[in-house]
Amino acid sequence: MVATDYSLYLAVGDRVFHKKFLRWGMGVVVEERRSQLPGGFCYVRINFQDGNIRVFDNNFKSNGCCYYAGIQKIDTEKEMRRSRKKQEALRKKIIKMLLKTRKMLKAPGEDGACGSQ
Q1: What are phi and psi of 66, to 5 degrees?
Q2: Residue-range domain boundaries for the chain
Q3: Residues 81-115: pLDDT tens digits?
Q4: What is the pTM of this model?
């Protein structure tokens, strides 16, 4: 059994971007490789929107890890939760405005009954 002496940051399918090179666009991890030798190299291949595939070190324990080089994960689950919260807040705000408008349109004394006739 081989002991692994590395800690991985990215996995296949993760969506990422580079903080220093935003012009590359969003990237997707398309390949992950790990050495089975102690002290071996582990890397990821990332396909960016600019059409280039770039290779990065994927070991957190390495000074050259892609995380320290500027690769940042895009947390899609977090973004989905955030957008759902925004939608819910907007829905509540709209309902509140509609109820307020309804009260304003309803003049005092107008309950559907005929007045002086």
Answers
A1: -60, -30
A2: 15-73, 75-105
A3: 777 888 888 888 888 888 877 777 776 665 555 55
A4: 0.62
